[in-house]
Amino acid sequence: MRTFWPRLKDDFQLSIITLVGLLAVVGVSPYAVFRLGEGSWLVGATDTFLVVSTLLAVVYAWRTGDTIRPGQFLALIYSTGAFLVSAKLGANGLFWMYVLILFNFFVVPPLQSLIATMSTLVAICVYGWLHPERVFESHYQMASFVVTCLLSGLFAFVFAHRARVQRRLLARQATIDPLTGIGNRRTMDAELDIAMADSKRYGIDFGLLVLDLDYFKQINDRFGHGIGDQVLVDFVDCVREVCRPSDRLFRLGGEEFVLLVPKADLNSLKAIAEHIQQRVRTQLLRPDGAPVTASIGGSLLRGHADRDGWLKHADECMYDAKRAGRDQTVIRPLAPNRAVAATEGPDYHQ
Ligand SMILES: Nc1nc2c(ncn2[C@@H]2O[C@H](COP(=O)(O)OP(=O)(O)OP(=O)(O)O)[C@@H](O)[C@H]2O)c(=O)[nH]1
């Protein structure tokens, strides 16, 4: 229950599927009971099937976190339901088509929705054409139905497409650093939590490097903010060239970065840090030709109870590297002043 509201709030698709489940119970169940009561077995059974299937899709989405397949399933069964209801009830059932148009655009991507909606429209029209006066009372009514459905579908498509683009943009802005294109602090927090869970569950060792450019303020002050920005972008390129595809780089803020390294030990962390420093020192030059350097602090996940404690420890190591003269690496097991156990390895100062 503790995760119910946050999940509902954060996952748009899940909230829509849940709403559909609620509406199916509240809005379709009475119809099912009424139709079964008056002896309309096909429509009653269709409504009952819709309610039960919807509830199953809602449960599946909540249990697995997958909202794509339940969405497609719901679009399929509701489209079929709309066809059956129209075929059985005639003009009175056609109104459900407008609900279906909106519904489909909510639960599946715009193109899939367009296909599902248009297929249903074509199926109803073909059935209506082959069975005169069973669905449509006249050709004029059929033409009006087609035109109004097409217009509703078009508006829904444009709206759904725009909303989708905006949602993607918002999600990107919330997780990506706009200057360098790497994950921001929010993304890092989420990935560190996943790393901690993986470490517990699968026993994978994770290493963390905090990388901070040295005397970066001088670069800004002497050469301007634009050059400073370019140095940050080039620094990210340098680090990416050195690390493996499985390593994850984030911008913590300003000129401070974090590299998450799976399957790491003290030796491999030290090797990566030195490799990065060497690459930055030789490839990243200021406009006056002086090398740009970075101080690096590192820590292994071992023994850290929480994400912030792990990060703080690596950050403290980075400040020790600054104090040791900059362009240095300090990688240390958890307790700085504790006698280092043989399995943990020694402190490393480059
Ligand atoms: N160009 C640019 N500068 C930034 C950005 N974010 C933070 N800064 C600057 O980064 C500088 C950081 O300065 P300090 O914290 O004093 O660090 P430093 O000069 O690198 O000194 P040390 O870290 O002690 O070596 C400040 O001048 C900030 O204005 C950014 O996105 N672009």
Bound molecules: guanosine-5'-triphosphate
Output mean pLDDT: 90
Strand tally: 6
Order of helices and strands: HHHHHHHHHEHHEEHEHEE
Largest sheet: 6 strands, mixed
Could you tell me the radius of gyration in angstroms? 30 Å
Enzyme class: transferase
Protein name: diguanylate cyclase
Subcellular location: Cell inner membrane
Cofactor: Mg(2+)
Describe this structure in words.
With 350 residues, the protein is of the alpha+beta class. Helices cover 66% and strands 9% of the residues. It contains 13 helices and 6 strands. A hairpin with a 2-residue loop joins β2 (248-253) and β3. α1 (4-10) packs across α2, α2 (12-37) runs antiparallel to α3 and α4 (68-89) packs parallel to α7. The longest helix is centred in the middle third of the chain and has 37 residues, at 139-175. It is elongated, with a radius of gyration of 30 Å. The two termini are 49 Å apart. Residues 336-348 have low confidence and may be disordered. The structure holds guanosine-5'-triphosphate (GTP). Guanosine-5'-triphosphate is lined by residues 179, 212-217, 220, 225, 228-229, 232, 254-255, 322, 326. This is diguanylate cyclase. It catalyses: 2 GTP = 3',3'-c-di-GMP + 2 diphosphate. Its cofactor is Mg(2+). Residues 204-334 form the GGDEF domain.
